[in-house]
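User: Could you write out the 3D structure of this protein bound to FE2/S2 (inorganic) cluster? I've included everything you need below.
Assistant: Certainly. Input first, then the structure.
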Amino acid sequence: SGAPVSFRLNGVERTIDVPAETRLSEILRDLLSLTASKVACGVGRCGACSVLMNERPVNACLVMAWQLEDADIVSPEGLDILPETRIVRQALSAENAFQCGYCAPGFVTVLVSLLRNDPDAEMSQIKAALEGNICRCTGYHSILRGAQAAAE
Ligand code: FES
């Protein structure tokens, strides 16, 4: 077991007391019922669990409770208030980018982060940003088209 950790989650200060090796993906989904971020591979290879940690995308399945002290975490639920999120979601849905949609929150999280840093991101930057996100349904053309439209 561990010591309590305090961090900010979607703008709200939280203190939780869980074993130090508890994964952020479990904290969000199981402890706090924030289920927008998904878990598919569980080992950092698919991006379904993407959240922002100190304004950068990370795989929540690889972040342990002990690493959260003083961190600023934004889960997909917390992205709703950002204008970039609406732009990204609209552009992706206009391209019918997703089929089952399980991977979508991870893609949206990474793309919102990219566009906040660089609203005019080029395709090469979009591809680099999405390198860690896997989609098993539609393939990537429609996702990349949507992402490019969001950056225009
Ligand atoms: Fe975390 Fe796949 S579930 S990267």
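The mean pLDDT is 95.
User: Perfect, thank you.
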